[in-house]
Amino acid sequence: MRLERPEVLGMAVDRRALEDFLYREARLMDEHCYDEWLSLWAPDSLYLVPCSQEDIDPAHTVNIITDGPERRQDRVTRLKSGNAYAQEPPSRLVRLISNVEVLEERADGEVVVRSNFLLVELRRGCQRLLAGRQWHRLRPRDSSFEIVWRKVVLLNNDEPVSNLTFLI
Questions:
Q1: Given this structure, which CATH class describes domain 6-154?
Q2: Which long-range contacts (CB under 8 A, 24 or more apart) does 38-44 make?
Q3: pLDDT of amino acid 1
Q4: What mean pLDDT is predicted for residues 114-142?
Q5: How far apart are CA 27 and CA 36, in angstroms?
Q6: According to the model, what pLDDT value does residue 121 have?
Q7: What three-state secondary structure class fits 161?
Q8: Of the given ranges (4-18, 70-84, 85-99, 148-162), which has the lowest mean pLDDT?
Q9: Which of 20, 47, 95, 168 is the least buried, fewest Cβ under 10 Å from its Cβ?
């Protein structure tokens, strides 16, 4: 699928609103605001973290995370329950989002946005870095957006990855 640049298509994209949405999502994950994070998602949405650098159909491959709405809710319920022992106490997280690029704007208002991220986790005195790229397909909702599809590709996703029990 060839993605057209919106400025070439002559469509107006509110980059500031898109960036603000991505920054807000990052903050909600970092601050463990799980219910607010869930509210950003569309009812028909998919959250994907593949274990390959190749662009492969997620339905036919093994992934680190493949979450529809019910699985995302289960993940959040577990994190909030106090029974997610790998997150007791919760990791301290800081995420940086950069290189935000609008790849596609569709006639129905949906946009595809790619960005880079650097995630710093501090847990029990150990600090680690996770880096990667993420793609969002966003749909207009009220005065903002909702996530239809989010794909997070870790830089090291084809190598052993330790505890990812927090929201990535």
A1: alpha beta
A2: 38/72, 38/73, 38/76, 40/145, 40/146, 40/147, 41/69, 41/72, 41/146, 41/147, 42/139, 42/141, 42/146, 42/147, 42/148, 43/69, 44/69, 44/148
A3: 43
A4: 95
A5: 10
A6: 94
A7: coil
A8: 4-18
A9: 20
